[in-house]
Design brief:
The chain is of the alpha/beta class. It is built from ten helices and nine strands. The structure holds S-adenosylmethionine (SAM).
Length: 265
């Protein structure tokens, strides 16, 4: 167990998208690469006519909101999440799209037969799963032979590393965002996937954050899974640590490391 995969914390964090959508909004606004990670990720998908696709941990399904029209003919897309709140949100948004189904599913116990999907997607969610090896076994089992698994995640040299350094500077007891301990990152993800998959490629998306308001960074950390129990008053002074990094134009520049694995069965 680590700060990211404690079941009760994960359930609480994603009972709806109130916190998650704030973090998405932050990245959309302050990321320097305006192409957008969701577009970059969608470009990677090799979706053919009649493909059967399952997304696990789809969250609020934001990526699909602008992509349904781009899907080839007769694709059957199942969007799923273990949070009933997220499923309700997505169900409401996609109700006019035929061929799209929403289901509540835990990736560690997928209720489908062996060899049933052409594509399985698990974006930014494997580091939240208690038993990531079981999750990968399940994904592998339900993929058809030559089926493709797409899994996006974070790298250890990006925003989380920066936040960890800032927290340690603020209070050395606060080892938050210690991404080196997370169970599925761009650094250790291949070792996890290798237990089932032979062909695995990794891709990185170039990006960074530029922001001039240190208080918005404090608001961001307060929406995260790892700080759910922490009161804002406990973080008084953290904004000063962020403000120290401002350049002469008042901007804070923060690296991001984000990308995906593509694994073929
Ligand atoms: C960071 S969000 C990512 C959402 C979406 N994939 C995206 O990239 O925008 C993580 C999602 O994974 C879901 N999740 C966490 N553990 C899960 C599990 N064991 N099975 C299925 N979904 C899970 C959460 O409910 C949450 O919606």
């Amino acid at each position: 167990m680590n700060e990211m995969n404690q079941k009760n914390e994960v359930i609480h964090q994603y009972k709806d998208d109130s916190k998650f959508s704030k973090r998405q909004g932050f990245h959309d606004k302050y990321s320097t690469n305006k192409y957008g990670f969701r577009n970059w990720m969608f470009d990677k998908y090799e979706i053919k006519e009649n493909s059967k696709i399952l997304e696990l941990g789809c969250g609020n399904g934001l990526m699909w909101d602008e992509k349904y029209e781009e899907l080839p003919k007769d694709v059957h897309l199942i969007l799923s999440d273990f949070s009933s709140g997220m499923c309700d949100l997505v169900r409401e948004k996609q109700k006019n799209h035929q061929n799209v189904e929403v289901k509540q599913i835990d990736i560690q116990n997928i209720p489908y037969e062996d060899n049933s999907f052409d594509i399985v997607i698990a974006n930014h969610m494997l580091y939240h799963v208690e038993d990531v090896e079981k999750a990968i076994e399940e994904v592998y089992r339900i993929l058809k032979p030559r089926g493709i698994f797409y899994a996006s995640t974070l790298g250890v040299n990006g925003f989380q590393k920066y936040l960890n350094q800032k927290f340690r500077e603020f209070n050395k007891e606060m080892d938050f965002f210690n991404i080196e301990n997370w169970s599925f990152t761009l650094k250790n993800g291949k070792d996890v996937l290798k237990k089932k998959f032979n062909k695995i490629d990794m891709y990185e998306y170039e990006d960074s954050i530029e922001i001039n308001d240190e208080n918005i960074l404090v608001e961001w950390v307060l929406t995260s899974t790892v700080l759910q129990g922490i009161k804002k008053e406990k973080l008084e002074g953290l904004s000063t640590c962020f403000a120290k990094d401002k350049d002469k134009n008042g901007m804070i520049h923060i690296p991001k490391q984000i990308g995906c694995f593509i694994a073929v069965k």
